[in-house]
Design goal:
The chain is an alpha/beta fold and about 400 residues long. It has helices at about 25-35, 50-60, 75-90, 105-115, 130-140, 165-170, 195-205, 245-250, 265-275, 280-290, 295-320, 345-355, 370-375, 385-400, and strands spanning about 35-40, 100, 120-125, 145-150, 150-155, 155-160, 175-180, 210-215, 240-245, 255-260, 325, 330-335, 360, 360, 375-380. The strands form four sheets. It has a seven-stranded mixed beta sheet with strand order 2-10-9-8-7-3-4, sandwiched between helices. A four-stranded antiparallel beta sheet has the order 11-12-15-14. It is globular and about 60 Å long. The N and C termini lie far apart (about 70 Å).
Length: about 400
Amino acid sequence: MTSMSPSARPLLNRRLAEFGTTIFAEMSALAVRTGAINLGQGFPDTDGPEEVREAAVRALRDGRGNQYPPGPGVPELRTAVAAHQLRRYGLSFDPDTEVLVTAGATEAIAAALLALLEPGDEVVALEPYYDSYAACIAMAGGTRVPVTLRPGAADGEPAFRLDLDELRDAVTDRTRLLLLNTPHNPTGTVLTRDELAAVAELAVERDLLVVTDEVYEHLVFGTAEHVPIATFPGMRERTVTIGSAGKTYAFTGWKVGWVTGAPDLVAAVRSAKQYLTYVASGPFQYAVAEALRLPDSYFADFRADMLAKRDLLAGGLERAGFKVFRPAGTYFITTDIRPLGESDGFAFCRALPERAGVVAIPNAVFYDHREQGAPFVRFAFCKRTEVLEEAAGRLKTLAA
């Protein structure tokens, strides 16, 4: 008698069957293999402020965080997060009951969705979206309902815009939660105060929870402003706000994120989070607590530096023949490849390292409606100036 093979049914949980190796892993490997400049994955190629790095070294040497930190996060960081939200946005949170430290924003998203969703609940999310959103909704047994940001214009410039009527139509009796991301990755759109007010009104009217990913809160350009949706009437008690140190301070490997919200919401997220990593990033939590207290000049200089890099790469992409959507926030530029005679972002990105020595990401991976994202390609500009200059020079070969 033979026993049944363990592979008689697929080994991977069917909820995750549609998710293979991430495009980031594929394109990063392609960059290594070809020696191309990697403008695909969104991490800086320099470290952040020296005083913040030294704060981590000091914590290590002093033995702070080398053992398990408290489950909700070290008190110093929870206090710093609460002070940041109050100083920046006038939002008052109790560090003990309304702040939770996570292993980056990615764990915060996973914990929030696992905690707040039941199988069959619908989640309305703005498409294109960061790839972990879809996977986390699937793991929680939810059903994602994409609302597509479509190419249009803002202040006369090409931009991706939210159709509020489409958003309203997407909400049904099965909708549990709105999953927002502003400033938005990958399009660079920053939802306006009026747009957020309309979203808030819809959430209150339909009694919806909101999970909002605001990791790029300090990276907005020009006249754009970041306004947390939790500041709108009726929203504080129904909103889980997610923040992160990685993008703002250029220490993405530290994986320090946080959640703020009403006590019952944070308690629910904590219940899921404790069975994921339980705790993480002990010494780095103390360093991020100091980072959050940096003067306003740090954030102004950070934005100015990234704005200059945005414009440097955007100019190079325009000269190469792309249609460029200059972002109002984040450190990603979305481009349209159709002016180059191309229409398939996957094929274009897989060929680009050999053609021009640069790696980018096809936006279609961030869509359920793949055809909507097919002609769009994303480049990261959170790199050293000389790297961006070299990339722009290489991309000029496409214009020929």
